[in-house]
Amino acid sequence: MTERVSSVRIMMAHLEEGYLQYHVNSDESALMAYKVLVAGNKLDFRQFLHRVLSANREFEVVGEANDAHQACELAKENKADLLILDIDIKRDSENLKNFSADCPGMKVILTSYYDFKEYAEIARKVNASAFIPKTRLSTQSILDILTERN
Question: Which of the listed residues 38, 81, 120, 150 has the most CB atoms within 10 Å of its CB?
Answer without folding.
Answer: 38
